[in-house]
Amino acid sequence: MRRPLIAGNWKLHKTLAEARQLAAQLAEKSRGIDDRDIMVAPVYTALTTVSEVVQGSAIQLAAQNCYPQETGAFTGEVSPLLLKDAGCSAVIIGHSERRQLMAENDAFINLKLLKTLESGLQAILCIGETLQERENDQMLDVLSRQVKGGLAGLSAEQMESVVIAYEPVWAIGTGVTASNEQAQEAHSFIRGLLQGLFTPEIAAQTRILYGGSVKPNNVDGLMAQDDIDGALVGGASLNAEDFLRIVKFSS
Ligand code: PEP
Question: What is the fold of 5-247?
């Protein structure tokens, strides 16, 4: 029922030439894949280049961040409207690196999400607990706060354009992946939250991605879990062969 989505977050990597090359490889080698969505999120400066390269292919384009205003005196910021203009169909919002390094809180993330949806783009809302929070038994409270805060004020209709990415902070870029069971437990809890906040239908149709050291050798087990609908991939998305293997998961 839920169409799988594999999204690559390139973070602060790839020059224009490198981005062009990787995008061209992905576009070429993903030809014929039509039963899942594939997305890449390059740095801002590579968006238009990658957009041109992937045009007509199965690869969709996302941005890694946005600012919750359309235009104005906001030096250094980029709005969802301009990201759409650059060829994006989605924006990653609330990545843990931004929560931690840029001190983004749930209220600000919520503003970005609302502006992204208002601009006609999909939003990928990232949530996840730190190791300390998990060890202190705060995981469910943290996920609950991030889901409620991030999705505050959204209508059921708007939820159709929202994807959630569960990314335990302790698994991002560490090579430590949540076990299939740990990931499924968190995803099932998040789906339960959506049911309470919206409706059983919304909960059943919302895609929940797992992120955190997803690699070719662990993607199949993760994707076999009932409530895991895709992956948000960092490190392994920088290499065409690895990312394509993840895209071609079998569950
Ligand atoms: C991410 O950046 O969202 C991520 C999950 O990174 P990695 O796959 O490298 O852990």
Answer: TIM Barrel (3.20.20)
